[in-house]
Amino acid sequence: MTHDLSPQLPPLFNSVQGIWDVNSPIKFHYHNSMHSPIEVTAGIQAIMDNLAVIKLFAPRLNFEYQGLTSTAPALIPNGQFEIGFTREELFRSRWGLSWGYAYVWWASHIYDSMQSYRPAPFLNILETQGVSEANHAFRAINLHEWGHSLGVNHLNSGQHSIMANNPYNSWKFQGILRWTDMLQYWRTYGYSGEMKGYVLLDEDLTMYIPSMEWANAEYWIEMSYDGTVNGSHQFSVKDLGVIPEHYAVQITSCASIGPKSSRLVITEAFWKGSRYTLTLEAINTAATTWKVVNAELIP
Questions:
Q1: Residue 102's CB: how many other CB atoms inside 10 A?
Q2: N or C: lower Cβ tally within 10 Å for the chain?
Q3: Range of the domain at 205
Q4: Residues 144 and 236 in one domain
Q5: Which of 168, 189, 210 is the last residue of a domain?
Protein backbone atom coordinates (compact mmCIF):
# COMPACT_ATOMS: atom_id res chain seq x y z
CA MET A 1 0.00 0.00 0.00
CA THR A 2 1.46 3.37 -1.02
CA HIS A 3 0.56 6.62 0.70
CA ASP A 4 1.25 10.27 -0.08
CA LEU A 5 2.70 11.52 3.22
CA SER A 6 2.65 15.19 2.22
CA PRO A 7 0.29 17.39 4.29
CA GLN A 8 -3.29 17.14 3.03
CA LEU A 9 -4.56 20.18 4.93
CA PRO A 10 -6.35 23.08 3.23
CA PRO A 11 -5.93 26.75 4.18
CA LEU A 12 -7.88 27.16 7.40
CA PHE A 13 -9.80 29.78 9.31
CA ASN A 14 -10.58 32.18 6.48
CA SER A 15 -13.82 30.20 6.53
CA VAL A 16 -14.91 31.28 10.02
CA GLN A 17 -17.78 33.74 10.17
CA GLY A 18 -18.51 34.72 13.78
CA ILE A 19 -17.81 32.80 16.98
CA TRP A 20 -19.69 32.31 20.24
CA ASP A 21 -18.60 33.97 23.47
CA VAL A 22 -16.91 31.14 25.39
CA ASN A 23 -17.86 32.80 28.68
CA SER A 24 -21.55 32.05 28.16
CA PRO A 25 -23.25 28.69 27.54
CA ILE A 26 -24.72 27.99 24.11
CA LYS A 27 -28.39 27.36 24.86
CA PHE A 28 -30.56 25.43 22.41
CA HIS A 29 -33.99 23.79 22.10
CA TYR A 30 -35.12 20.72 20.17
CA HIS A 31 -38.21 21.23 18.01
CA ASN A 32 -40.84 18.58 18.70
CA SER A 33 -41.98 18.37 15.09
CA MET A 34 -44.80 16.22 13.75
CA HIS A 35 -42.74 16.00 10.52
CA SER A 36 -39.73 14.33 12.12
CA PRO A 37 -38.89 10.77 10.99
CA ILE A 38 -36.50 10.54 13.96
CA GLU A 39 -37.94 9.72 17.40
CA VAL A 40 -37.56 12.71 19.74
CA THR A 41 -35.36 11.03 22.35
CA ALA A 42 -33.11 9.58 19.61
CA GLY A 43 -32.70 13.02 18.06
CA ILE A 44 -31.78 14.61 21.37
CA GLN A 45 -29.35 11.78 22.16
CA ALA A 46 -27.65 12.21 18.77
CA ILE A 47 -27.16 15.91 19.46
CA MET A 48 -25.77 15.28 22.94
CA ASP A 49 -23.37 12.63 21.59
CA ASN A 50 -22.09 15.12 19.02
CA LEU A 51 -21.61 17.84 21.60
CA ALA A 52 -19.57 15.45 23.76
CA VAL A 53 -17.24 14.91 20.78
CA ILE A 54 -17.06 18.63 19.95
CA LYS A 55 -16.12 19.44 23.54
CA LEU A 56 -13.10 17.13 23.22
CA PHE A 57 -11.70 19.63 20.70
CA ALA A 58 -13.29 22.85 21.94
CA PRO A 59 -13.33 22.37 25.74
CA ARG A 60 -13.92 26.06 26.40
CA LEU A 61 -17.39 25.79 24.86
CA ASN A 62 -20.35 24.92 27.07
CA PHE A 63 -23.74 23.77 25.82
CA GLU A 64 -27.06 23.88 27.63
CA TYR A 65 -30.10 21.94 26.41
CA GLN A 66 -33.25 23.96 27.19
CA GLY A 67 -35.82 21.26 26.44
CA LEU A 68 -38.46 20.78 23.75
CA THR A 69 -40.09 23.64 21.89
CA SER A 70 -43.10 23.91 19.57
CA THR A 71 -41.32 26.72 17.68
CA ALA A 72 -39.95 25.53 14.35
CA PRO A 73 -36.49 26.65 13.14
CA ALA A 74 -36.96 29.92 11.28
CA LEU A 75 -34.85 32.56 9.56
CA ILE A 76 -35.40 35.13 12.29
CA PRO A 77 -33.28 35.50 15.42
CA ASN A 78 -35.40 34.88 18.52
CA GLY A 79 -32.81 33.87 21.11
CA GLN A 80 -34.01 30.26 21.27
CA PHE A 81 -31.64 28.43 18.86
CA GLU A 82 -34.04 25.77 17.59
CA ILE A 83 -32.87 22.44 16.15
CA GLY A 84 -35.35 20.21 14.37
CA PHE A 85 -37.20 19.07 11.28
CA THR A 86 -39.11 21.40 8.98
CA ARG A 87 -42.08 20.48 6.80
CA GLU A 88 -40.76 18.99 3.53
CA GLU A 89 -42.34 21.52 1.17
CA LEU A 90 -41.26 24.49 3.29
CA PHE A 91 -37.70 23.24 3.59
CA ARG A 92 -37.43 22.68 -0.17
CA SER A 93 -38.76 26.16 -0.92
CA ARG A 94 -35.99 27.65 1.21
CA TRP A 95 -32.97 25.37 0.80
CA GLY A 96 -33.72 22.93 -1.99
CA LEU A 97 -32.68 19.29 -1.62
CA SER A 98 -30.11 19.74 1.13
CA TRP A 99 -30.47 17.35 4.06
CA GLY A 100 -29.95 20.08 6.61
CA TYR A 101 -29.34 23.80 6.89
CA ALA A 102 -27.86 25.93 9.67
CA TYR A 103 -27.78 29.69 10.08
CA VAL A 104 -26.15 32.02 12.60
CA TRP A 105 -26.64 35.64 13.59
CA TRP A 106 -23.75 37.61 15.05
CA ALA A 107 -22.57 41.09 15.95
CA SER A 108 -19.39 41.06 18.07
CA HIS A 109 -20.15 37.37 18.71
CA ILE A 110 -22.71 34.84 17.49
CA TYR A 111 -25.85 35.39 19.56
CA ASP A 112 -28.32 33.00 17.91
CA SER A 113 -28.50 30.07 15.50
CA MET A 114 -30.92 27.57 14.04
CA GLN A 115 -30.64 24.13 12.43
CA SER A 116 -33.35 22.83 10.11
CA TYR A 117 -33.55 19.32 8.63
CA ARG A 118 -35.46 17.95 5.63
CA PRO A 119 -37.56 14.85 6.49
CA ALA A 120 -37.47 12.97 3.15
CA PRO A 121 -33.90 11.61 3.06
CA PHE A 122 -34.07 10.40 6.66
CA LEU A 123 -37.50 8.88 6.08
CA ASN A 124 -36.10 7.02 3.08
CA ILE A 125 -33.27 5.57 5.17
CA LEU A 126 -35.75 4.67 7.92
CA GLU A 127 -37.96 2.75 5.47
CA THR A 128 -35.14 1.04 3.56
CA GLN A 129 -32.43 0.48 6.19
CA GLY A 130 -34.15 0.73 9.55
CA VAL A 131 -34.26 2.88 12.67
CA SER A 132 -30.59 2.52 13.62
CA GLU A 133 -29.29 3.73 10.25
CA ALA A 134 -31.76 6.63 10.20
CA ASN A 135 -30.58 7.72 13.66
CA HIS A 136 -26.98 7.33 12.53
CA ALA A 137 -27.66 9.51 9.47
CA PHE A 138 -29.21 12.25 11.58
CA ARG A 139 -26.28 12.21 14.00
CA ALA A 140 -23.82 12.48 11.10
CA ILE A 141 -25.61 15.37 9.37
CA ASN A 142 -26.15 17.08 12.72
CA LEU A 143 -22.39 16.99 13.37
CA HIS A 144 -21.86 18.82 10.06
CA GLU A 145 -24.54 21.41 10.87
CA TRP A 146 -23.03 22.02 14.31
CA GLY A 147 -19.91 23.15 12.46
CA HIS A 148 -22.00 25.87 10.82
CA SER A 149 -23.74 26.76 14.08
CA LEU A 150 -20.32 27.24 15.65
CA GLY A 151 -19.31 29.63 12.87
CA VAL A 152 -17.55 27.41 10.32
CA ASN A 153 -18.31 27.73 6.61
CA HIS A 154 -17.85 24.95 4.09
CA LEU A 155 -14.25 23.93 3.44
CA ASN A 156 -12.90 22.93 0.05
CA SER A 157 -10.86 20.11 1.57
CA GLY A 158 -12.03 16.98 -0.21
CA GLN A 159 -12.00 13.86 1.92
CA HIS A 160 -10.29 15.50 4.88
CA SER A 161 -13.16 17.40 6.49
CA ILE A 162 -16.80 16.78 7.28
CA MET A 163 -17.35 20.43 6.27
CA ALA A 164 -16.24 19.80 2.67
CA ASN A 165 -18.76 20.75 -0.02
CA ASN A 166 -16.83 20.38 -3.26
CA PRO A 167 -18.19 17.78 -3.42
CA TYR A 168 -20.14 16.94 -0.28
CA ASN A 169 -19.04 13.73 1.40
CA SER A 170 -21.58 10.99 2.09
CA TRP A 171 -23.52 11.11 5.33
CA LYS A 172 -21.62 8.04 6.55
CA PHE A 173 -18.37 9.98 6.21
CA GLN A 174 -19.72 12.92 8.18
CA GLY A 175 -20.22 11.00 11.42
CA ILE A 176 -16.62 11.50 12.57
CA LEU A 177 -14.45 14.61 12.81
CA ARG A 178 -11.25 14.61 10.75
CA TRP A 179 -7.94 16.25 11.59
CA THR A 180 -8.89 19.37 9.60
CA ASP A 181 -12.09 19.72 11.62
CA MET A 182 -10.22 19.30 14.90
CA LEU A 183 -7.77 22.04 13.90
CA GLN A 184 -10.68 24.26 12.97
CA TYR A 185 -12.17 23.98 16.46
CA TRP A 186 -8.80 24.28 18.22
CA ARG A 187 -7.77 27.39 16.35
CA THR A 188 -11.22 29.02 16.47
CA TYR A 189 -12.10 28.50 20.12
CA GLY A 190 -8.69 27.87 21.65
CA TYR A 191 -7.47 24.95 23.66
CA SER A 192 -6.39 24.81 27.28
CA GLY A 193 -4.53 22.01 28.99
CA GLU A 194 -3.29 18.74 27.59
CA MET A 195 -5.40 16.03 26.01
CA LYS A 196 -4.77 12.34 26.40
CA GLY A 197 -4.14 10.32 23.32
CA TYR A 198 -7.37 9.01 21.86
CA VAL A 199 -9.03 7.50 18.86
CA LEU A 200 -12.54 8.03 17.56
CA LEU A 201 -14.55 5.02 16.46
CA ASP A 202 -17.54 5.50 14.22
CA GLU A 203 -20.50 3.15 14.56
CA ASP A 204 -19.28 1.11 11.59
CA LEU A 205 -15.96 0.67 13.47
CA THR A 206 -13.98 3.01 11.23
CA MET A 207 -11.07 4.09 13.42
CA TYR A 208 -9.56 7.58 13.29
CA ILE A 209 -6.39 8.36 15.25
CA PRO A 210 -5.79 12.11 15.21
CA SER A 211 -2.24 11.97 16.52
CA MET A 212 0.25 9.11 16.61
CA GLU A 213 4.01 9.33 17.02
CA TRP A 214 5.89 6.80 14.94
CA ALA A 215 9.49 6.74 13.72
CA ASN A 216 10.20 10.31 14.94
CA ALA A 217 7.24 11.83 13.10
CA GLU A 218 3.63 12.59 13.99
CA TYR A 219 0.80 11.19 11.87
CA TRP A 220 -2.97 11.17 11.63
CA ILE A 221 -4.28 7.77 10.61
CA GLU A 222 -7.61 6.44 9.40
CA MET A 223 -8.26 2.69 9.50
CA SER A 224 -11.15 0.69 8.11
CA TYR A 225 -12.67 -2.34 9.80
CA ASP A 226 -11.98 -5.66 8.07
CA GLY A 227 -13.96 -7.97 10.37
CA THR A 228 -12.69 -10.56 12.82
CA VAL A 229 -9.94 -13.12 12.43
CA ASN A 230 -9.71 -15.82 15.12
CA GLY A 231 -11.90 -13.70 17.38
CA SER A 232 -9.85 -10.48 17.05
CA HIS A 233 -11.08 -7.30 15.37
CA GLN A 234 -8.89 -6.44 12.40
CA PHE A 235 -8.26 -3.03 10.82
CA SER A 236 -6.37 -1.91 7.71
CA VAL A 237 -4.76 1.48 7.20
CA LYS A 238 -7.00 3.39 4.81
CA ASP A 239 -5.29 6.78 4.80
CA LEU A 240 -2.60 8.64 6.70
CA GLY A 241 -0.54 11.82 6.58
CA VAL A 242 2.24 13.63 8.39
CA ILE A 243 1.12 16.39 10.76
CA PRO A 244 3.25 19.47 9.98
CA GLU A 245 5.12 20.96 12.93
CA HIS A 246 3.49 24.36 12.52
CA TYR A 247 0.11 22.76 13.20
CA ALA A 248 1.29 21.47 16.58
CA VAL A 249 -1.18 21.82 19.44
CA GLN A 250 -1.16 20.90 23.11
CA ILE A 251 -1.82 17.21 22.73
CA THR A 252 0.08 14.15 23.85
CA SER A 253 0.40 11.43 21.26
CA CYS A 254 -1.96 8.52 21.64
CA ALA A 255 0.89 6.11 21.23
CA SER A 256 4.63 6.01 20.91
CA ILE A 257 5.92 3.12 18.87
CA GLY A 258 9.33 2.57 17.33
CA PRO A 259 9.74 1.66 13.67
CA LYS A 260 10.12 -2.01 14.58
CA SER A 261 7.40 -2.15 17.21
CA SER A 262 4.22 -4.11 16.54
CA ARG A 263 2.09 -2.98 19.50
CA LEU A 264 -0.05 0.14 19.74
CA VAL A 265 -1.70 1.20 23.00
CA ILE A 266 -4.42 3.83 22.68
CA THR A 267 -4.90 5.32 26.11
CA GLU A 268 -8.33 6.76 25.43
CA ALA A 269 -10.79 5.71 22.75
CA PHE A 270 -14.13 7.51 22.40
CA TRP A 271 -17.02 5.50 20.96
CA LYS A 272 -20.78 5.98 21.37
CA GLY A 273 -20.36 8.16 24.44
CA SER A 274 -18.04 5.77 26.33
CA ARG A 275 -14.26 5.70 26.71
CA TYR A 276 -12.00 2.69 26.27
CA THR A 277 -8.33 1.74 26.45
CA LEU A 278 -7.37 -0.29 23.39
CA THR A 279 -4.36 -2.45 22.68
CA LEU A 280 -3.62 -3.27 19.04
CA GLU A 281 -0.96 -5.44 17.47
CA ALA A 282 0.33 -5.23 13.91
CA ILE A 283 -0.20 -8.43 11.96
CA ASN A 284 2.11 -7.59 9.07
CA THR A 285 5.62 -6.15 8.88
CA ALA A 286 4.48 -2.96 7.14
CA ALA A 287 2.16 -2.16 10.09
CA THR A 288 -0.72 -1.49 7.71
CA THR A 289 -3.03 -4.04 9.31
CA TRP A 290 -3.73 -4.24 13.03
CA LYS A 291 -5.92 -6.31 15.35
CA VAL A 292 -7.47 -5.36 18.67
CA VAL A 293 -6.13 -7.73 21.32
CA ASN A 294 -7.62 -5.99 24.34
CA ALA A 295 -10.31 -3.39 25.08
CA GLU A 296 -11.11 -2.06 28.55
CA LEU A 297 -13.96 0.27 29.44
CA ILE A 298 -12.82 3.40 31.28
CA PRO A 299 -15.27 4.11 34.16
A1: 20
A2: C
A3: 198-298
A4: no
A5: 189
Contact 291, 280 (CB under 8 A): yes
For residue 285, how many other CB atoms are within 10 A of its CB?
8
Q: Cis link prior to 121 (omega < 30° from 0)?
A: no
C-alpha to C-alpha distance for 70 and 257, rounded to whole angstroms: 53
User: Is residue 14 one of the residues assigned to a domain?
Assistant: no
**Residue by residue, what is the 3-state secondary structure of 137-199?**
HHHHHHHHHHHHHCCECCECCHHHCCCEECCECCCCHHHCCCHHHHHHHHHHHCCCCCECCEE
The pTM for the full model equals 0.70
What is the per-residue pLDDT across 72-118, written as a single tens digit (0 to 9) for each? 998 888 889 999 999 999 999 999 999 999 999 988 889 999 999 99
Q: Are residues 119 and 245 in the same domain?
A: no
What is the spatial order of strands in the sheet that 82-85 belongs to?
Answer: 63-69, 26-31, 82-85, 110-117, 100-106
- Secondary structure (DSSP) of 238-276: EEEEE--GGG--SB--S-EE-TT--EEEEEEEEETTEEE
Residue ending a domain, among 140, 172, 189, is 189
Tell me phi and psi for residue 292, to 5 degrees: -80, 120
